[in-house]
Amino acid sequence: MSLFSNQSISSFCGPSSILYYNTNRDFSKAFYIFACGINMIISISSTLGNILVLCAIRKCQSLHSPSKALIFSLAMTDLFVGIAVLPLFIAYHMTIILEMLNYYCVIAVTYVTLSRFLSSVSLVTIVTISVERYMAFRLRLRYRAAVTLKCVVSTLVAEWIAAALWSGLRLYSDTAGAISGAVSVLGCCIVAPACYFVIRRGIRGHVTQIRQRQNHGCAAITNNFDLPQYRETLRNMMWISGLLVACYMPYLSALFVTLILGRTNSTRFAVNFSTIAVYLNSSLNPLLYCWRIKDLRDRVMEECHRICNCLFHLIRSPTQNEISGNIAASIPRPFQQQGRGKEDV
Protein backbone atom coordinates (compact mmCIF):
# COMPACT_ATOMS: atom_id res chain seq x y z
CA MET A 1 0.00 0.00 0.00
CA SER A 2 1.25 3.47 -0.83
CA LEU A 3 2.40 5.50 2.13
CA PHE A 4 0.34 8.50 1.03
CA SER A 5 -2.74 8.50 -1.15
CA ASN A 6 -2.29 12.08 -2.38
CA GLN A 7 0.75 12.13 -4.66
CA SER A 8 0.81 15.94 -4.92
CA ILE A 9 1.22 16.15 -1.15
CA SER A 10 3.46 13.13 -0.65
CA SER A 11 5.97 14.50 -3.17
CA PHE A 12 7.00 17.04 -0.52
CA CYS A 13 7.83 14.21 1.88
CA GLY A 14 9.97 12.12 -0.48
CA PRO A 15 13.40 10.63 0.27
CA SER A 16 15.18 13.86 -0.71
CA SER A 17 13.04 15.95 1.64
CA ILE A 18 13.83 16.77 5.24
CA LEU A 19 10.27 15.66 5.99
CA TYR A 20 10.92 12.10 4.79
CA TYR A 21 8.96 9.91 7.21
CA ASN A 22 11.17 6.82 7.10
CA THR A 23 14.15 8.86 8.27
CA ASN A 24 12.33 10.87 10.93
CA ARG A 25 10.81 7.65 12.26
CA ASP A 26 14.29 6.32 13.07
CA PHE A 27 14.89 9.02 15.67
CA SER A 28 14.17 8.14 19.28
CA LYS A 29 10.58 8.78 20.29
CA ALA A 30 11.93 10.19 23.54
CA PHE A 31 13.29 13.12 21.52
CA TYR A 32 9.89 13.83 20.02
CA ILE A 33 8.18 13.58 23.41
CA PHE A 34 10.76 15.98 24.88
CA ALA A 35 10.31 18.38 21.95
CA CYS A 36 6.51 18.28 22.34
CA GLY A 37 6.78 19.14 26.04
CA ILE A 38 9.19 22.03 25.47
CA ASN A 39 7.19 23.42 22.55
CA MET A 40 3.96 23.23 24.55
CA ILE A 41 5.52 25.41 27.26
CA ILE A 42 6.87 27.83 24.64
CA SER A 43 3.47 27.96 22.93
CA ILE A 44 1.62 28.90 26.12
CA SER A 45 4.17 31.51 27.23
CA SER A 46 4.43 32.98 23.71
CA THR A 47 0.66 33.28 23.37
CA LEU A 48 0.10 34.89 26.77
CA GLY A 49 3.13 37.18 26.56
CA ASN A 50 2.41 38.52 23.10
CA ILE A 51 -1.29 39.05 23.85
CA LEU A 52 -0.23 41.24 26.79
CA VAL A 53 2.22 43.16 24.58
CA LEU A 54 -0.40 43.72 21.86
CA CYS A 55 -2.90 44.99 24.45
CA ALA A 56 -0.35 47.26 26.14
CA ILE A 57 1.51 48.74 23.18
CA ARG A 58 -1.39 50.92 22.07
CA LYS A 59 -1.20 52.70 25.46
CA CYS A 60 2.57 53.18 25.30
CA GLN A 61 3.29 56.90 24.88
CA SER A 62 7.10 56.84 24.80
CA LEU A 63 7.32 55.09 21.42
CA HIS A 64 6.85 56.89 18.12
CA SER A 65 4.02 55.46 16.02
CA PRO A 66 6.30 53.79 13.39
CA SER A 67 8.24 52.03 16.16
CA LYS A 68 4.94 50.88 17.66
CA ALA A 69 3.87 49.46 14.30
CA LEU A 70 7.14 47.55 13.87
CA ILE A 71 6.99 46.02 17.35
CA PHE A 72 3.28 45.28 16.80
CA SER A 73 4.16 43.36 13.61
CA LEU A 74 6.81 41.32 15.43
CA ALA A 75 4.42 40.59 18.29
CA MET A 76 1.76 39.46 15.80
CA THR A 77 4.15 37.01 14.14
CA ASP A 78 5.19 35.69 17.56
CA LEU A 79 1.53 35.32 18.56
CA PHE A 80 0.78 33.31 15.41
CA VAL A 81 3.79 31.14 16.21
CA GLY A 82 2.30 30.44 19.62
CA ILE A 83 -1.28 29.74 18.51
CA ALA A 84 -0.67 28.08 15.12
CA VAL A 85 2.88 27.01 14.28
CA LEU A 86 3.78 25.37 17.58
CA PRO A 87 0.51 23.39 17.85
CA LEU A 88 1.14 22.18 14.28
CA PHE A 89 4.72 21.34 15.21
CA ILE A 90 3.46 19.30 18.17
CA ALA A 91 0.87 17.58 15.96
CA TYR A 92 3.63 16.85 13.41
CA HIS A 93 5.69 15.13 16.10
CA MET A 94 2.66 13.29 17.46
CA THR A 95 2.03 11.73 14.03
CA ILE A 96 5.53 10.25 14.26
CA ILE A 97 5.14 9.09 17.86
CA LEU A 98 1.75 7.48 17.17
CA GLU A 99 2.72 6.40 13.61
CA MET A 100 -0.28 8.15 12.05
CA LEU A 101 0.89 7.85 8.45
CA ASN A 102 -2.34 9.08 6.88
CA TYR A 103 -1.99 12.51 8.49
CA TYR A 104 1.79 12.85 8.63
CA CYS A 105 2.60 14.56 5.35
CA VAL A 106 -0.38 16.93 5.26
CA ILE A 107 0.38 18.20 8.77
CA ALA A 108 4.12 18.37 8.08
CA VAL A 109 3.72 20.41 4.88
CA THR A 110 1.20 22.76 6.52
CA TYR A 111 3.50 23.28 9.49
CA VAL A 112 6.60 23.93 7.35
CA THR A 113 4.77 26.34 5.02
CA LEU A 114 3.32 28.41 7.86
CA SER A 115 6.63 28.36 9.70
CA ARG A 116 8.51 29.64 6.65
CA PHE A 117 5.93 32.38 6.17
CA LEU A 118 6.15 33.74 9.72
CA SER A 119 9.93 33.35 9.91
CA SER A 120 10.38 35.37 6.73
CA VAL A 121 8.05 38.08 8.06
CA SER A 122 10.10 38.30 11.27
CA LEU A 123 13.38 38.51 9.39
CA VAL A 124 12.19 41.22 7.00
CA THR A 125 10.65 43.19 9.88
CA ILE A 126 14.01 43.18 11.66
CA VAL A 127 15.59 44.65 8.52
CA THR A 128 12.82 47.25 8.35
CA ILE A 129 13.60 48.23 11.95
CA SER A 130 17.25 48.82 11.06
CA VAL A 131 16.27 50.92 8.02
CA GLU A 132 13.78 52.91 10.14
CA ARG A 133 16.49 53.68 12.71
CA TYR A 134 18.83 54.75 9.89
CA MET A 135 16.14 57.06 8.49
CA ALA A 136 15.59 58.55 11.94
CA PHE A 137 19.28 59.45 12.21
CA ARG A 138 19.64 60.56 8.60
CA LEU A 139 16.56 62.77 8.45
CA ARG A 140 16.57 63.91 12.09
CA LEU A 141 14.12 66.82 12.26
CA ARG A 142 12.43 65.75 9.03
CA TYR A 143 11.96 62.18 10.27
CA ARG A 144 8.48 62.56 11.74
CA ALA A 145 7.20 64.23 8.59
CA ALA A 146 8.83 61.76 6.18
CA VAL A 147 8.46 58.44 8.03
CA THR A 148 4.75 58.38 8.82
CA LEU A 149 2.65 55.63 10.34
CA LYS A 150 0.86 55.14 7.02
CA CYS A 151 4.18 54.63 5.22
CA VAL A 152 5.40 52.06 7.77
CA VAL A 153 2.09 50.16 7.82
CA SER A 154 2.05 50.02 4.00
CA THR A 155 5.59 48.62 4.05
CA LEU A 156 4.65 45.99 6.63
CA VAL A 157 1.56 44.92 4.66
CA ALA A 158 3.71 44.57 1.53
CA GLU A 159 6.21 42.45 3.48
CA TRP A 160 3.48 40.13 4.78
CA ILE A 161 2.11 39.69 1.25
CA ALA A 162 5.59 39.06 -0.18
CA ALA A 163 6.29 36.47 2.53
CA ALA A 164 3.01 34.70 1.74
CA LEU A 165 3.83 34.64 -1.99
CA TRP A 166 7.30 33.25 -1.29
CA SER A 167 5.89 30.53 0.97
CA GLY A 168 3.45 29.58 -1.79
CA LEU A 169 6.27 29.56 -4.34
CA ARG A 170 8.10 26.93 -2.28
CA LEU A 171 5.09 24.63 -2.73
CA TYR A 172 5.12 24.91 -6.53
CA SER A 173 8.86 25.08 -7.14
CA ASP A 174 11.17 24.21 -4.27
CA THR A 175 14.26 25.16 -6.28
CA ALA A 176 12.98 28.61 -7.24
CA GLY A 177 11.75 29.19 -3.71
CA ALA A 178 15.07 28.11 -2.22
CA ILE A 179 17.05 30.38 -4.55
CA SER A 180 14.82 33.41 -3.94
CA GLY A 181 14.86 32.70 -0.21
CA ALA A 182 18.65 32.45 -0.13
CA VAL A 183 18.98 35.74 -2.02
CA SER A 184 16.52 37.43 0.35
CA VAL A 185 18.29 36.14 3.46
CA LEU A 186 21.65 37.24 2.06
CA GLY A 187 20.22 40.68 1.32
CA CYS A 188 18.82 40.95 4.85
CA CYS A 189 22.16 39.89 6.33
CA ILE A 190 23.86 42.69 4.38
CA VAL A 191 21.33 45.52 4.78
CA ALA A 192 20.70 45.29 8.54
CA PRO A 193 24.38 45.28 9.69
CA ALA A 194 25.20 47.96 7.11
CA CYS A 195 22.50 50.25 8.53
CA TYR A 196 23.74 49.82 12.09
CA PHE A 197 27.36 50.33 10.97
CA VAL A 198 26.50 53.59 9.18
CA ILE A 199 24.45 54.77 12.18
CA ARG A 200 27.28 54.03 14.61
CA ARG A 201 29.76 55.84 12.39
CA GLY A 202 27.40 58.79 12.01
CA ILE A 203 26.84 59.09 15.76
CA ARG A 204 30.60 59.17 16.35
CA GLY A 205 30.97 61.91 13.77
CA HIS A 206 28.11 63.88 15.31
CA VAL A 207 29.61 63.65 18.81
CA THR A 208 33.07 64.60 17.50
CA GLN A 209 31.61 67.65 15.76
CA ILE A 210 29.91 68.80 18.96
CA ARG A 211 33.12 68.38 21.00
CA GLN A 212 35.19 70.29 18.44
CA ARG A 213 32.77 73.21 18.53
CA GLN A 214 32.85 73.22 22.33
CA ASN A 215 36.67 73.12 22.40
CA HIS A 216 36.86 76.09 20.04
CA GLY A 217 34.38 78.06 22.12
CA CYS A 218 31.71 77.97 19.42
CA ALA A 219 28.04 77.93 20.19
CA ALA A 220 26.45 74.52 20.49
CA ILE A 221 24.63 73.10 17.52
CA THR A 222 21.04 74.16 17.94
CA ASN A 223 18.63 71.48 16.87
CA ASN A 224 15.98 69.38 18.47
CA PHE A 225 17.66 66.04 17.73
CA ASP A 226 17.73 64.20 21.06
CA LEU A 227 20.88 62.10 20.71
CA PRO A 228 20.67 60.33 24.12
CA GLN A 229 17.05 59.35 23.49
CA TYR A 230 17.93 58.16 19.99
CA ARG A 231 20.80 56.07 21.35
CA GLU A 232 18.47 54.45 23.88
CA THR A 233 15.91 53.57 21.19
CA LEU A 234 18.69 52.30 18.94
CA ARG A 235 19.98 50.01 21.70
CA ASN A 236 16.49 48.63 22.26
CA MET A 237 16.04 47.81 18.58
CA MET A 238 19.53 46.27 18.39
CA TRP A 239 18.67 44.04 21.36
CA ILE A 240 15.54 42.87 19.53
CA SER A 241 17.54 42.19 16.37
CA GLY A 242 20.35 40.50 18.27
CA LEU A 243 17.97 38.15 20.10
CA LEU A 244 16.38 37.06 16.83
CA VAL A 245 19.79 36.40 15.26
CA ALA A 246 20.94 34.46 18.34
CA CYS A 247 17.83 32.25 18.28
CA TYR A 248 18.07 31.65 14.53
CA MET A 249 21.81 30.97 14.50
CA PRO A 250 21.63 27.26 15.53
CA TYR A 251 19.02 26.59 12.84
CA LEU A 252 20.93 28.48 10.15
CA SER A 253 24.13 26.66 11.16
CA ALA A 254 22.33 23.31 10.85
CA LEU A 255 21.08 24.29 7.38
CA PHE A 256 24.61 25.33 6.38
CA VAL A 257 26.03 21.99 7.54
CA THR A 258 23.23 20.21 5.66
CA LEU A 259 24.16 22.13 2.52
CA ILE A 260 27.76 20.91 2.81
CA LEU A 261 27.28 17.33 4.03
CA GLY A 262 23.92 16.61 2.44
CA ARG A 263 20.75 15.31 4.08
CA THR A 264 21.94 12.59 6.42
CA ASN A 265 20.32 11.30 9.60
CA SER A 266 22.57 13.53 11.69
CA THR A 267 21.85 16.71 9.73
CA ARG A 268 18.10 16.02 9.73
CA PHE A 269 18.22 15.58 13.50
CA ALA A 270 20.20 18.83 13.89
CA VAL A 271 17.67 20.77 11.81
CA ASN A 272 14.72 19.33 13.75
CA PHE A 273 16.31 19.97 17.14
CA SER A 274 17.50 23.51 16.33
CA THR A 275 13.97 24.68 15.50
CA ILE A 276 13.26 24.73 19.25
CA ALA A 277 15.66 27.68 19.56
CA VAL A 278 13.86 29.47 16.71
CA TYR A 279 10.49 29.19 18.43
CA LEU A 280 12.00 30.16 21.76
CA ASN A 281 12.47 33.63 20.25
CA SER A 282 8.69 34.18 20.17
CA SER A 283 8.53 33.50 23.91
CA LEU A 284 11.56 35.63 24.85
CA ASN A 285 10.60 38.71 22.83
CA PRO A 286 7.84 39.89 25.23
CA LEU A 287 10.31 39.63 28.13
CA LEU A 288 12.85 41.64 26.14
CA TYR A 289 10.30 44.34 25.30
CA CYS A 290 9.37 44.70 28.97
CA TRP A 291 13.00 44.75 30.06
CA ARG A 292 14.19 47.38 27.58
CA ILE A 293 11.11 49.63 27.25
CA LYS A 294 10.00 50.95 30.65
CA ASP A 295 6.77 52.53 29.45
CA LEU A 296 5.71 49.29 27.79
CA ARG A 297 6.65 47.36 30.93
CA ASP A 298 4.42 49.62 33.01
CA ARG A 299 1.52 49.17 30.58
CA VAL A 300 1.96 45.39 30.64
CA MET A 301 1.95 45.40 34.44
CA GLU A 302 -1.27 47.43 34.36
CA GLU A 303 -2.84 44.88 32.02
CA CYS A 304 -1.73 42.01 34.28
CA HIS A 305 -3.12 43.79 37.33
CA ARG A 306 -6.43 44.45 35.57
CA ILE A 307 -6.73 40.83 34.41
CA CYS A 308 -5.88 39.50 37.87
CA ASN A 309 -8.51 41.77 39.44
CA CYS A 310 -11.13 40.59 36.96
CA LEU A 311 -10.28 36.94 37.65
CA PHE A 312 -10.25 37.56 41.41
CA HIS A 313 -13.69 39.17 41.40
CA LEU A 314 -15.00 36.52 39.02
CA ILE A 315 -13.86 33.72 41.35
CA ARG A 316 -14.62 35.52 44.61
CA SER A 317 -18.13 36.84 43.89
CA PRO A 318 -20.05 33.52 43.78
CA THR A 319 -18.19 32.26 46.83
CA GLN A 320 -18.83 35.47 48.77
CA ASN A 321 -22.54 35.44 47.90
CA GLU A 322 -22.81 31.82 48.96
CA ILE A 323 -21.10 32.53 52.30
CA SER A 324 -23.33 35.56 52.96
CA GLY A 325 -26.42 33.50 52.16
CA ASN A 326 -25.34 30.73 54.50
CA ILE A 327 -24.68 33.18 57.35
CA ALA A 328 -28.05 34.87 56.89
CA ALA A 329 -29.83 31.51 56.81
CA SER A 330 -28.11 30.36 60.01
CA ILE A 331 -29.30 33.37 62.07
CA PRO A 332 -32.67 32.75 63.85
CA ARG A 333 -35.48 35.05 62.79
CA PRO A 334 -36.03 36.59 66.25
CA PHE A 335 -32.39 37.66 66.39
CA GLN A 336 -32.66 39.10 62.89
CA GLN A 337 -35.67 41.14 63.96
CA GLN A 338 -33.90 42.31 67.12
CA GLY A 339 -30.95 43.35 65.07
CA ARG A 340 -33.13 45.42 62.77
CA GLY A 341 -34.88 47.00 65.77
CA LYS A 342 -31.59 48.11 67.29
CA GLU A 343 -30.52 49.62 64.01
CA ASP A 344 -33.77 51.60 63.80
CA VAL A 345 -33.19 52.99 67.30
UniProtKB/TrEMBL annotation:
Q: Which residues form the G-protein coupled receptors family 1 profile domain?
A: 49-289
Report which superkingdom the organism of origin falls in.
Answer: Eukaryota
A GO CC term assigned to this protein in UniProt: plasma membrane
> A Pfam family this protein belongs to?
7tm_1
Give the transmembrane ranges: 30-57, 69-95, 101-131, 143-166, 178-199, 239-261, 273-291
UniProt cross-references to InterPro entries, sorted A to Z: GPCR_Rhodpsn (IPR000276), GPCR_Rhodpsn_7TM (IPR017452)
Q: How does it sit in the membrane?
A: Multi-pass membrane protein
Keywords on this record? Cell membrane, Membrane, Receptor, Transmembrane, Transmembrane helix
Q: Please list the GO terms describing molecular function.
A: G protein-coupled receptor activity
Localization terms from the record: Cell membrane
Q: What is this protein called?
A: Trace amine-associated receptor 3
**Which organism does this sequence originate in?**
Acropora cervicornis (Staghorn coral)
